[in-house]
Prior knowledge:
The protein has helices at residues 14-33, 47-54, 59-64, 80-89, 92-95, 134-151, 168-180, 188-196, 207-213, 225-240, 285-288, 303-312, 331-347, 361-370, 381-386, 406-417, and strands at 37-38, 44-46, 66-68, 73-75, 99-108, 120-129, 156-161, 246-247, 259-266, 275-281, 296-302, 325-329, 352-354, 375-379, 388-393, 399-403. It is an alpha+beta fold. It has an eight-stranded mixed β-sheet. A hairpin with a 4-residue loop joins strand 3 and strand 4. The chain binds adenosine-5'-triphosphate and magnesium ion.
Amino acid sequence: MKIKALNGFKDILPEDVGIWRRVEDVVRDVLERFHFAEIRLPILEKTELFARSIGADTDIVEKEMYTFTDKQVTMRPEATASLMRAYIEHSMHAARPVQRLFTIGPMFRHERPQKGRLRQFHQLDVEVLGSSSYRLDAELMSLGSLLFAELGVSASLEINSLGCPDCRPAYRRQLLEFIGDRIGQLCSDCRRRSLTNPLRVLDCKKDGCRQQVAQAPSLIDHLCPACADHFSGVRDSLERLSVPYSVNKFMVRGLDYYVRTTFEFVTDRLGSQAAVCAGGRYDGLIEMLGGPKIPGIGFAMGLERLVLLLKSSDQTPGQAAEIDVFVAGLGERGSGYGFALVDGLRRDGLRADMDLDGKSLKSQMKQADKAGSRFVLIIGDQELAGRRAPLRDMATGEQVELALDLESISTYIKERSSGLDG
Ligand code: ATP
Ligand code: MG
């Protein structure tokens, strides 16, 4: 019986790894420009960490977590909670008043797999701890928009404010009244949500519910003065940075810890998996997890969705050369010499490979071609006797005779290759 991967768990095959690495390279480059430092976090945490931070009445905690019931531990469904745990555990606030951190890695959620929705997926997670300035909110959105721009992906920014513990309760009561009048028309999930987490009704993706809530009162019309000031500060700052955005007054996030600013980058090219990046402010979270009273804001970008977007955009890069040189050894002695030569070329910084199984020259040329090798060096008894060997340039078909020693071959290939491969 063949064993297959679990549903919703996917291999990233070698032909796709290039695109993933490109994403990660752009991410690291842009984040360094914004003065962020990378942090690497464990995949397994105490279940309580997620239950407390994300909120017990959220989809994630209610039904999506991979929890070992015998051990009270959970495969992280997102990175913010773990990052806060690490921030508090290592007293990172003491080292720097403002910490700008990011992490990249797999997350786990037991949801129905679809295009752009997996059970193991990857996120870039970006967090800034230690500033409550509305400028920081805009700066992070600008960072997000630059990431998309540098990758050549288009996504539009939507923003909203979820208020704070001062203004949200009064709004919540108004919303409950509004929902109460329409409860019969809502889906069963929303009927349940209206009891546990009524703001989430605004976010339901079902058409019926969407129609019902279209006229609902919106939180941004009921913000307290401080939250209203913050929100207009964010909007002014985005305009100052020329970052285009629109206000989506029904955007609520599926995590309880958000206050004030929330935002998403969305695309219309991934069906209902529209959000590529989502984030918001969580000023009370660190304190709630037992840390100091320090504000924070962050976002998470879904890398599978980003990769899907990159693949669907018409950038079709040609096959990149996997190696600089393929050494074709003929006969036992040629192969033996080639074996040591390939090792030497690699130690000398070149990408080199050969056939180890005594295949014919024709078959070896095919292997070289498959690898997109720039050069092929042929070594048989004759070449060993004359101490010279032919090196073929696969791009031009041109052939030169080189002295058969590591230094001559290595130098020649390096001179010819410089500036060719990007
Ligand atoms: P969605 O509404 O699509 O379920 P979410 O609100 O659950 O998203 P977040 O928890 O905010 O998502 O995660 C941030 C980003 O991570 C999302 O915008 C998305 O790009 C990505 N993401 C979330 N869940 C998955 C998943 N199961 N598979 C792939 N990517 C995901
Ligand atoms: Mg979700």
